[in-house]
Amino acid sequence: MENYDPSVLPKETYLLYEIKWSSSKRPWQNCCHNSLTEHAEIYFLEDIFKKQRSDPSDHCSITWYMSWSPCGDCCKAIRGFLKDQPNVNLVIYVARIYWHKEETNRQGLRSLVNIGVSIRVMDLPVYSYCWRTFVDDEDKDEDDYWPRHYSPWIMLYSLELQSILQNIPSCLEISSGENQTPVFSLCIENDQQKRALTSANP
């Protein structure tokens, strides 16, 4: 789960997923990540889902737990996928927001929410669920894993996601500190941003 630590900025994108079919009692759970040539979301849509798809009439619920939110191009691909798959419902949890000030990425996330996709920042219960669900039994110790120190970054990214979805200016600043360690700070300049902060409840 170190790839999901919101206080750092790794280059890779990891995607934990659950696929639940209306005709099956047990969900399909696994993970994938990006390659040098393909984003994790595209790999899921064009490879993993196609291999799992059986009866197109089955209702399908997909949940993604992503280390980075989708970029603008991936958001466009997701919209096309959902248009072609009307029986599919998608929920996305993200640990971080990818290039959060790039307008194409911000527009992409809004466009997904506008067609019914749920996008949320991972909170502590979601981190705990992913730990219990996706980490191999022999590797996990519940006493050793409780990401309480994630709370400040969860709040910051939750605030920024609210700013994006409400189409108001970015509230989050990320700069490089000593040894290239990222430094996060809030930039609250108006009442709209204050309201977004009130809406961010990690």
UniProtKB/TrEMBL annotation:
GO molecular function: cytidine deaminase activity; RNA binding; zinc ion binding
Pfam families: SNAD4 (PF18750)
Keywords: Hydrolase, Metal-binding, Zinc
Biological process, per Gene Ontology: cytidine to uridine editing
SUPFAM superfamilies given in the database record: Cytidine deaminase-like
Names of required cofactors: Zn(2+)
GO-annotated cellular components: cytoplasm; nucleus
Transmembrane segments: none
Annotated Gene3D superfamilies: Cytidine Deaminase, domain 2
All residue ranges annotated as the CMP/dCMP-type deaminase domain in the record: 1-112
Claim: Secreted is one of the keywords in the record: no
Family to which the UniProt record says this protein belongs: Belongs to the cytidine and deoxycytidylate deaminase family.
PANTHER family: C-U-EDITING ENZYME APOBEC-1 (PTHR13857:SF26), MRNA EDITING ENZYME (PTHR13857)
The name this protein goes by in its record: CMP/dCMP-type deaminase domain-containing protein
Source organism of this protein record: Chelonoidis abingdonii (Abingdon island giant tortoise)
Gene from which this protein is expressed: LOC116823838
